[in-house]
Each structure stands twice: as structure tokens, then as C-alpha cells.
Fold each of these.
Amino acid sequence: MHETIERVSEYYKRVNHWQNRRSIRVLPDQVRLQVTVPSCSHCVTCQRRVREFQEILAQKPDVICQWRTLNDGAYWVFFNRKEDQDPIQLLRDILEVSIT
Ligand SMILES: [Zn+2]
């Protein structure tokens, strides 16, 4: 997939009551959530965030996702979206989190 930078919007949001805000990147056909904190990805807390989401996703076999380590060093999850779907609401619904 080719990405052009002007087609990516980035937001920093609070997920649940997690201490550090997370980056959310919205592409026309995808939304990407930074699950771990860059440079902190292997701490117990970050690993718990990953595990909790993987457990939720394991209950939703119809949801297509990809996990990737991006060049910020963080572990991200990508979801496909239709262009008319609100990307933040999509993440809330799939991952059962508050995002503010
Ligand atoms: Zn961490």
C-alpha cells in the first residue's frame, strides 16, 4: 500500500484512563492505534494493553486487524474502515474503550 503523508491525519487521544495519550492515524481506508508507548513497549503495562486488546479481538473473529511495530518503536494495531466510518468511533466499538 502506498501512503502519501497528506492523506494521513494524526490525533493524540486518551484511551480509557491510560496515563499516556496514544497516537491515532487515520487513512482513507484504515485507522491505526498506537497501543504501546514508544520506547516503553516492553514494560508490563504496555504488554498488558496489548494482551487486553488481543483478548477482545479474539472474541471478534470478523474484525480484520494487523499488528505492526512502526518506526516509532511502538506496537500498533490497524483496522480497515470504510471512508464514511468515523475512525474514532470504530476504535471505541471494536476495542470497547473510551477515547477522548
Ligand atoms: Zn510501557
Amino acid sequence: MSYNLLKGKRGIIFGALDENSIAWKTAQLAHEEGATFVLTNAPVAMRMGQIAELAKATGSEIIPADATSIEDLENLVTKSVEILGGKLDFVLHSIGMSVNVRKGNAYTDQNYNYTEKGWDVSAVSFHKVMQTLYKHDAMQEWGSIVALTYMAAQRTFPDYNDMADNKAYLESIARSFGYFFGKDKKVRVNTISQSPTPTTAGSGVKGFDGFINYAEKMSPLGNATAQDCAEYTVTLFSDYTKKVTMQNLFHDGGFSNTGVSQEVIEKF
Ligand SMILES: NC(=O)c1ccc[n+]([C@@H]2O[C@H](COP(=O)([O-])OP(=O)(O)OC[C@H]3O[C@@H](n4cnc5c(N)ncnc54)[C@H](O)[C@@H]3O)[C@@H](O)[C@H]2O)c1
């Protein structure tokens, strides 16, 4: 069922790799809710992923961009405004990658070249995206920018590795840039802290199966799925959340405020 929540709104969606991606589900729903948008991903992901299918189904154009490259981002932002016929109402940053995790390096044995790369892709890219939008004055007043994060930014999950630090940095950027975007352009900036979700990025974390099952048993409402996340994200792009900004919003079925659940106690 559609509520036309995003009727006439324009945006950019980063990070739809395949049908499991949170960005993929968000694009599908944003389309159903009346939005038009440009899809983007890293050129290398373009070749591996199935983004062309999504573009066809949602009537979107694809503009490849490495989110760490200012040149790519400038091209993306300028062209998107042109293609969509006006300034942007929403932007979704749904990007994460740790080279240390990929290579199986422990948190206590990082290769700092990998650390820097992962930090650039997973955290600084959010600043780069916003700085490009800001400088090009590409956001419509009362627009909304959202990035996805995980609770390892606040509490330790050992196998989340250096992504925990990247997420803490990402959340801080949302607050800091949120101030300037709010003051100068009346644009809101938030992060959604999502439950563990079976996607390419999620499943890359060591011990993911244990991790997701534990969260499911701990959360009074159960884990939030990628579809649930898409639904929450669309509300943050809608006109009904205009004064929500500079927040890290937990979307996790109650996990973050649960000390222990009956199911977990029974396991012991
Ligand atoms: N899956 C989970 O358990 C979970 C939980 C909380 C938060 N998140 C966050 O949600 C977001 C989306 O991840 P997902 O779970 O949908 O997985 P995903 O693997 O489908 O998406 C990650 C995306 O990042 C893109 N990406 C990587 N490097 C890039 C670059 N240099 N430039 C542009 N794009 C690049 C990938 O191509 C991919 O599309 C990430 O920020 C992730 O950390 C995921």
C-alpha cells in the first residue's frame, strides 16, 4: 500500500548492490511512494551488482560514483539535479566497507592502510557527500539526509572490528554537519542505527549468524529487517519529520535499551 509520502520528491540513493541491500529496498519503496531519484554505487560494485534491474523497475538513471572521490561526487550531484529537474529533497548514504574485516585482520592487528581506506569509505565519504551537496547548494529547503549505522558505535561488539570506530565517526559527522546544514539550508541530517541484517556487508562480519540470532532473542520486537529499515527511512524523507535532525535513531526492535531478555536467560 502506498501513502504517496514522497510524491514529487527527488533524491540520490547510494549503495544498492543487490536485492538484499537496505538501499535496494529503500529505492523500491521510495519509488512506490512517488519519489524520483538517481541510483549510484562504486564503479566496481556496478559490475558485480544488479543495479540495472533496479533502475529499470524504478525508472531511475544510474550514475557511478566512488563515494571517496570528490570529482565523482561533483559529477553525480550536478548531473542528478539536471536529470531530476531540480534540487534534491533526500539523500541516502548506505555505504560501508572494512578492508581489515575483509582480510580477516583482528582489531588488535590492523593494517593501517586498510584502516584508513575503510574509514574513508565508511565514514569520511559521508562528509564528502554532504560537503559536495552543500557547496553546490543542491539540497531543497526542508530536505533530509540519512546515513546508516550500527550500535557498535556505542557498545563493543568485538567482531565488528574497525567498523565500530568508523560508525562512531560517521555518527559524529551527522551531528556536526547537521548543525551547518540546519542553520544554513534548513536541511536535516540523521543516522539510523539498524539491527543486524543479512546483506553482503552484514554477512561479512565474523560470527554474523550468532550475532543476528542473539539480537533477535534480545529485541522485544525482534530484529528490524531491511524492509522495515526502508519504511523507517522513507518516513525520515517525508514531510512528517521536518524537525528531527542531528540524531542517531535506533531502529532495532528495542535491542539497544534491553539489558537481558527471558529467552537469553533461559539459554543459560
Ligand atoms: N547489514 C547489517 O547488519 C547492517 C546493520 C547496521 C547498519 N548497516 C549499514 O547499512 C549500510 C548498507 O549496507 P547493507 O547492509 O545494505 O550492505 P550492502 O553490502 O548491500 O551495501 C553496502 C554498499 O556500500 C557500497 N560501497 C562500498 N564501497 C563504496 C564506495 N567506495 N563508494 C560507493 N559505494 C560503496 C557497496 O557497493 C554496497 O552497495 C552500511 O552503511 C552498513 O554498515 C548494515
Amino acid sequence: MLDAGIAARPVALSRARAIERSATPAATSAAAYPAADSAPDAGPNAGPNAMGAALGLLGDEWSLLIIRHAFIGARRFVDFKQRLAISDAVLSARLAALVDGGVLRRVPSPVAGRHEYALTRSGLDLWQLLLAIWAWEQEHVEGQAGRLPHMLHATCGQRFRPLLRCSACSTPASVDDVDATFGPSGTFARSLPAGSNRRRPSGARSATAEGPDMFPETMAIIGSRWSSATVGAAFMGATRFGEFERLLGAPPTVVSDRLRSFVDLGVLEHVRDPEGPDRSSYRLSAKGRALFGVVATLLSWGERWLRADDGPAVVAVHRACGHGFRPELACSACRQTLQRDDVTID
Ligand SMILES: [Zn+2]
Ligand SMILES: [Zn+2]
């Protein structure tokens, strides 16, 4: 359960609240952090790093849907309730978790004695991740192009899709253009979401409310511990069954189950080797590689708001310009860098 996961990570959550109180994003310079070998609390017992904390908080479809609706005007409990096909208990738990995680805050309601929910600065900063998820689902998931709303760039007045670029040099960037290594807090174990927020069955959807399958394949990928770990391992270069098994530290049945489901989703390709099954490999397909936008914006947000005390989880360098890679999104129509307030739903 997500809530169990939240309770299991007091370090990350107190950090999120502390950051929110200071209302300033975490420093972004890796140089401000000690090296891994000098960090006092680095080690197998240290808490989740920025990736693990971000996945623990956001690797849940209800949470992402609540955030999405907060962006488009939902504030009261009843607003979320009406827009989402969600039970009171689940909605209460998710809202509480998002408040604990520093993404939402409770604000007084005009109705005496009541409160509403508003996005915090870190919550508002999730717009890039939501846009990256929307773009990937729109482009790569069957049936989503006709179902998801279009996005409008207010600055140029045109419909667009977001282009992922390096914020230092404004050049488009894909997974092939970025060298990523683990940072001071970067172990694979600490990059996993704390707890195992199991994906729930979709349930019935009404005509006016969104069920929990708005981003079906994104949630199949980041919505559970082993799934996000599998895709993380693939992005780290794992291709052989044994490499996935070693990185995940999971039983072979779990590993083969996840690999098979990612092959079914078209995110991984199973490349068979005629010399024997031991030599076959699993490689990211074009669809899988396009997930880089989601992975990069999620990690970048995590490093800004939930960074571990001993430094970044991942140090990424844009090969073309040599600067630390921080993603920005640009409008495909006018090529200007997108700003949060310039993006609307058409
Ligand atoms: Zn660059
Ligand atoms: Zn534009």
C-alpha cells in the first residue's frame, strides 16, 4: 500500500516538509554535496534517494490524477470526488499522502471549519512530468491519441507536443545524448520506491469521472516497485536476464514476469540469440526509449524537491555541451521553451 510506503520513509517526508517550509527548491549543484565515500549516512540502511522518494510518492495513478485535477481547478474534497471515480477512503488517504509529501497543502476554505487543497511550489513544479506522461501516452499508447485532450501553447496559440531539450544548450536530447552515472546517493536499492504500492484494479468508470486508467501504460511501468525497477535497470543498460535479476534482487519468477509484461507493452524487445537462450537479451524499443522524457522529468523533479541529504541519485551530463543535464520542454510548433502558465488544455 502506498500509505505503508509513506509511513516507512519518515526521512524523505520530513525532508519534503522542510523544503516546503523554506519554499525554495533544493540546491542543484552536485558540488554542494559530499562525495559518496565521505557521506556519513550513505550505505545500505540510508533512505530512498531522489528517485526512490519521487517514485514512492508519485508512482500511483490516483496520486497523479489528483495532482492533474488540482492543476485544472479542483480544490475541495468534493471536487476531487466528483471528477474521479474514487472512494472516500482512498481519496482521503491519497490527499493525506500528498500533503505529507509536500505536494499539496491544506488551506482554509471560505466555509468556516473546512479546508481545501492547494498545490505547493513543489506540486506546481510537477507540470513538466505530467506533460511528459501525457506526451508519451499520446504518442506511444494505442488509443490514447484520440482519447487524451490536446495541449495548447498560449504564447504561439498552437497545439503542440513537448520536445525534450537540454536546458543548458536548448538542444533536443534523447536517451542517447546523455551520460548518466549514479551520484553520491545513487545505489539501485535506494532508487526503488519505498513500499510496494500495488496497482489496483480499474473498477467501474462513470461518464463524467475519470477512473484510474487515464495513463494506463505509464502506471504499468512506474506504478509498482518491481516494474519501475525493471525499467530503471533497462535504462541503466541491463539487457541480459541475469543482469536484471542481479540489479533487482528479485526472484527469477518476478523478473521473468516483468520482462514478459514489458515485451507485451512494446517497451522492451526480446532479442533471441540462435546460440542459446542464455544469450538472448531484452532491449529498450523505440517506445521504451521514448520513456526517457518521463524518467528525466521525474528524476529532475525528485532532485529538486526530495534529494537525499548525501546528494543526487544520478549525475547526468549532456554529451553535446558537457553541462549537467537538466531537462526542459519546448513547444514543437514555435520551439520556445515552455513555461507552466503558458500551457493549457485545448
Ligand atoms: Zn546541453
Ligand atoms: Zn508554441
Amino acid sequence: MSSLAHRRLKPVLHAFLRQMTNLSFFLPGRERKAPMLAYHRVCPLRFKKEFSYNNVFPEEFEKQMQYLRANFEAITVSEYVRKMAANLVKGNEVCVTFDDGFKDNYIYAFPVLKKYGIRASFFLTTKYIGDSRPFPWVLMDRGGRDDFSKNPDRWLPLSWKEVGEMMDSGMEFGAHTHTHRDSLSNLSLEDARKEIEDSTRTFFEKTDTRPVIFSYPHGTFKDYDPAHIEMLKGHGYLAALTTNMGRNGSSQGLFELKRIVVYEEDSIWEFKKKVHGAYDVAERLQRIWLNAAGSKKLSDYAVK
Ligand SMILES: [Zn+2]
């Protein structure tokens, strides 16, 4: 299928997913599993956008965290992995994760996370942390450019000082490659190794701690290979996160942990469906969809 057809069909697929998951939500007898949520930006971008900024509004984010606080125990990914290894997952755990390392995570999400006692996990594109320019892949439409001139801070990457402050408050950090220039599967093995090595080394130099959790750029099953998993193990990682949809059962491979991406358009009902497992049935459909794309160049469809 052409990438254009794929892009055009995407809203149809999302609408179908919402309907299908409404039904699956009521299926009985599901294994007790813990959800991992994937966020990117949390920011009040109130303008009509030409394309997605992978953003959730701060008010929505607060409602979501309030719900998690009341219904789950929020733990970091490495805590979850330790519980999995010891067979201690109860099913009331949740992991809140953020990819890329946007400064808006510090400005808008961090105060809310502290308020509700949620320890989240953040995955950094290490080369750009501390930069005074936005990440190179953030293309701005007119609204974005206007907003950048008024509120430059919220378009920038985190600084290492902010990372340190968040770590001191119990937040966890891991690596998300050094440059995020492509999915690992689109790089030569040598370049993929360099992305992993450079991010691991930079993280250690800047924070004096070793990253133990990795998040794959783009993150679908087409964006990493077994060879990358071996590289990560060789660098001391305990687990890695994908954007393969659904929650993780006890037999889930630790280097292919599934997550559910939260979108700007998600109502609180959609959010509840996501955390209570309604999207567990969607992974198969996601695989069919991505296989139909027929190429590893998935940047057009996959979330960053
Ligand atoms: Zn990313």
C-alpha cells in the first residue's frame, strides 16, 4: 500500500480502533496486566495545527494523573521490570513514560506528577539535551512558529540541570538514542551501535548514573531488530520500550515491552479504556497495518 493511502486511511483505522476497543473492554477473563503509557509533549498549544505535535494539554494530563492516582500504583519502568522478574506484578501498577526529552515535560508535567505522587520515566535524545534550539525533527507550522517566538522555552529540549532536579524528585531517566535521526532498523548495524553507545556514554557523563532502560525511536516492531536487543544487553540495559500496543503479560520479553500512546484527542473515557486493557486486542491489527506498509520507512505513520 502506498504511504499516501496509508496516511489517508489512518483516521479511519483510529475510528475503527475506538469502536472495536469499546466492545473489547467488556470481555471477561483477562490476565491481570499493568499498563505503560507513552507521552511526548505536555503543553497548551491552542491553535489549529497542520500536523500533530504529539501533545497532550496540561488540563487533560492532570485529569489523567488524578485518575491514575485514585486507581493505580504508579511506578518507574525499572521498578516494574524488577517486579516482573520476581513475579510480583499485582496488576494495579502503571508506568507513565515520556519520549524525547522536551522541556515542557519539566514545565507542565513535572509539577502535576509531583502533586499526585507519580514517579514517571523519561527517555532522552541525549545529543540535544541542554540545546537552545528545538529538536531538529520538530517542524513548525505557522501557529507553532508564532508560539515559539512567544514561548520559546516550551519548544526546547530539557536541560541537564532540569534532568538532575527531576531525578532528585524520584523521576527515572533512560536513553532514546543520541540523535533520533531514524528508527534503528533503518540504520546500518554500525550506526545503530553508535547511537546506543553515544547515548549511553553521554547519559553517564552528564548524570553520573548508568541508564538501564531504553526506548526505541518510533518504537514499533519494525523499528528494532534482535541485533539491537543484543547491543542493549551488552551495554547493561535491563529492558526496552516499544510502541507496540497493549499491556504486558508475565511472559512479555523485557526488550519488547508494550506501551499505549496517549493522544491529544483522547477523552477521559478513551484514557480509561487504554489503562484498563481495551487496547490489548489492537496489537494484532497494528501489526497487520504496519506490515501492509511494506517498508521499514515508517516515520510517516509511527509516533516519534
Ligand atoms: Zn522519540
